[in-house]
Amino acid sequence: MELHDRSISQDIRELGALLGTILEEQTSREAFETVESCRRAAIDYRTGDLDTRDPLITELEGLSTHNQRTVARAFTTYFELINLAEERERIRTIRTGSHERTLDDGLENAAAELGEADDETVQQILDDILIEPTFTAHPTEARRKTVKSKLRDISTSLETLDERLLTETEEQQVWRDIDAEVTSLWQTPQVRNRQPEPEDEARNVQWYLENTLFDVVGEIYDELDDAIDSELSSDVDIPKLFEFRSWAGSDRDGNPYVTPEVTANILERQREVVLERYQEQLKRLSGVLSQDGSRIDVGSAFQASLETDRERLPGVTRTAEERYPGEPYRQKLKLMRERLRRVGDVRPGGYEDADALLEDLAVIATSLQTNGGETVVEAHVDPIRRRVDTFGFSLASLDLRDHQQKHTDAIAEALEREGIDYHGLSEDERVEFLTDAVLQDEPVLDLGETDGLTDDSARVLELFDSLGDWQTEYGVDAIDTYAISMTDEPSHVLEVLFLADQAGVVSLPEHAGIDIVPLLETEYALSGARRIMGTLFENEAYAQALEARGRTQEIMLGYSDSNKENGFLAANWSLYKNQRRLGEICDDHDVTMRLFHGRGGSISRGGGPMNEALLALPNNTITGQVKFTEQGEAIAEKYGNPRIAERNIEQMLNAQLRARKQAIDRPAEEIPAEWINAMETMADAARQEYRNLLESDGFVQYFEQATPITVIEDLNLGSRPASRSGERTVEDLRAIPWVFSWTQSRCILPGWYALATGIEAYLESEEPRSSDESSGDEPRDNGGSMETLQEMYDEWPFFRTTLDNAALSLSRTELEIAEQYAGMADATLRKRFFPRVTGEYERATELITEIGRRDRLHTRDWLGENLEQRNPYVDPLNMLQVHLLDRNHRTDIEERTLRLTVKGIAAGMKNTG
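Given the sequence above, the corresponding structure tokens read:
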């Protein structure tokens, strides 16, 4: 059975030909030939038919500004279309693998592994699982929403061509639609002419939740149910396994545009969106449940529920009875739809919360089952129940976030009016003061009194003053988490508890309306995890809050800033060993830990395959609950297409189920002391080399001159500023533009720099390091051994994943292209830094291939083919970007072309930051 009518080569060939035709129609034959000439020159150099890129560079530099812009637009549009072709190929692979039952990391594999355990353990594993993808508004999505919409329409047409049996006329009509969309795409500005606002970012996140995830979640549960039924002899209950969350419009860290008004608007909009979807679902269900009430017994529970609704909504009841005489299920569903319409309304009768809607659905399900309608329930009622259980009345719960310094300053300013010098208190004194203030009955501050405070401090108090109102209006679950950036001390967490207490959101010991989440991202915070968390767990006020939240502590780890501070290898090791430490601390205090992984899309910011990352976590941290950020272009790539979204979620669930079983089977991993010692040696040396690079005299200037950072800072990618204070330091620059800049210049330094130095330090060491992180075995005197590293790679998922991720970044690095960018830097800076970077790259490449015992960097066949196909088309954009960056004065059209090259390279690399 053939599932598809097309291939990726056919898609690429025909889309490329169509673009060429449109290019000529919309510009000129001369412009078309110019683009073709650049393309051929780039390909000829890559294939060895040309010895130098000089012909390509000469042609690009000799073009008029108008033709330069045409070239940039042509290659950018090409990559947008080719990305769709590759997406379609991913879907072919998924569908074919599903049909042939050859997909790895599927739910059948996970169920087979669960089948090795007894039913009680399987139920425990399922009850423990909660996966929380958290969508952020971090500005790494380079495409405009308008452009994404057009590309989605083209993608739908490609699906029609590939999966439907069409007549010749029908196929011609589909290609006419594609032609129209590509033409419109060519004529549409690629670069935003204004900075997006927080509500724009929130609507972008909502689109994926509403149009993709809302529909596929039920299918995941069905697949898991079937897979488990085939492996287990007895029934197990499948509880809620997913919950989606968002930072869009609620993340205040460094973004002054996220105001209480913005957050309130987003809460309202998200509730409207999800309630509308439920009404649609119930309307569709009404079309199914047309049973004649005189021929069935609906049961006393259903009848009582219907009568209650009739009394609650007498006016609507008359309409329902007239429209659906003798059809009790349809009458009930009509009343349920009206109750949904009245949520948040001044009219009475609306549902109080999602649980009340679930109760009504359960009553319908039970009634149907007693009348032999089990399959009706499975096919039509259960999917709605799963959606309500997952999305509630909020679509996605919002997490609040701000920088710890904002809370400290706001409290200090407010307390100064009460005669208290909070800034003058020591850490221990702050902890004592905040604890006493939370435990006493009388409030210390009036959060509504903001006169005389700085704008930042006033905003903090206004936020907390609004939080209680939001929870009253939208439910506690709609906005119940507060993350604290740059948490370094216990007082930073207690400050948020204090402010929540003053707002009435916390009333101990009975109620705590928020989870307070320390974000540990500096080396000081990570290494001080026991000091911070131990102090909190033993604090009287915080212990009461923790008890009120079910003794579950969420702790967030900052991958991006940790990498920017420490470098790739040292950051990964610090995060790993401190996750283990956090697990031990929580175990010591009988607290369930939920790790929140602040991962970005790129390798250097914690990116990479999520299922592999979940399986590589330390066993003692795998409690079943896990949370992670989804950012920028990764959201579109993972969740833009329903089939890919379903596969992505399936892989997450597969990994988490298997990881939880593994953690139950082996709670404490026995990692050989020599491996721990090797990592300590490597990480220390790598961090020292990385910090030495960043702190070297002139490095910041080199970074500015050898990357397009100054252009990226001016792009309208997101509502948040690119740096925290506007100072020109690496520390002040946000992690996203830091990585974005290196990615554009094809020198993906944050994803591998200092790895070679670290490995070499271990191989050259005479004695292994001692470590308090060892498994308890005495370190063996083996020196630095390549055999040990190869053993670590073969048997330790953490080490293998770390090296494989570095290999991906190295594979995507193009030093010849990077050298062109380095050529823009002052000669002294270029001689100082580029050979150093090159040497590190070459040695890392050699070491990774030797450790992995392979003849190439990456382990994925598709990656080599992908890079070979894409690189020649990215090269002209890089060469044009270098030419424009190197000009002292650029015209307006050159500025727009330069910004367009950034978009094009991002599309070609399928990555920004």
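The longest helix spans residues 65-100. Try to locate this feature in the token string yourself.
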